[in-house]
Amino acid sequence: MFGSKKDNSVDPALEQVGTIIGPGAILDGPLTTKDSTRIDGTVNGNVTISGALIVGQEGKITGTVSAMNAYVAGEITGNVSAPQGKVEISDTGKVIGDVTCKGIIIDENAVFHGNCEMTSIDKSSAAIAKERAVADKSSEETTEEKKGENKEENKEENK
How far apart are CA 24 and CA 40, in angstroms? Predict the structure, then answer.
């Protein structure tokens, strides 16, 4: 615990967990809640959470998952949807299925087998990236031109 360099802090929005499925608990059927939920047990069915979903290291979900944000340290077998939020798969997490989200974080040693579709990508940010690439290229060309001009000037000075 002391001297651990890994940051185990929890997002402040997640501190208000209203529903907990504890270790050893098994829920067969769909789970729907309006508040943030932590699952440390097993859920066999679709999970729909209006808030954040935290799947603990011992947590397992078999079914489609929909949440504002999803933090996976356990296992999800099924598609995960967080179109307005992010999905984070920790180093102990495993997601087998497609993910739809605005942002995704996949730690080293995490398992993700499926496709990822990013939502709400601003075309303006793509345009900005393109503009930066063009600007970088033109600045490189300008630098090369200046180097060439300096060589020409040095040749003339040496004559």
Answer: 8
Distance CA 19, CA 31 (A): 10
Residues paired with residue 69 on neighbouring β-strands, in sequence order = 52
Nearest of 4, 2, 14, 5 to residue 88 by alpha carbon? 14
d(CA 155, CA 159): 7
Gap between the Cα atoms of 60 and 20, Å rounded: 13
- Predicted TM-score of the model (pTM): 0.67
- Contact in structure between 29 and 12 (CB atoms under 8 Å): no
Question: What average pLDDT does this structure show over 38-47?
Answer: 95
DSSP-derived letter for residue 50 is S
CB distance 108 to 90 below 8 Å: no
CA–CA distances in Å: residue 99 to residues 15, 54, 144, 148, 159: 24, 16, 44, 50, 67
pLDDT of amino acid 9: 45
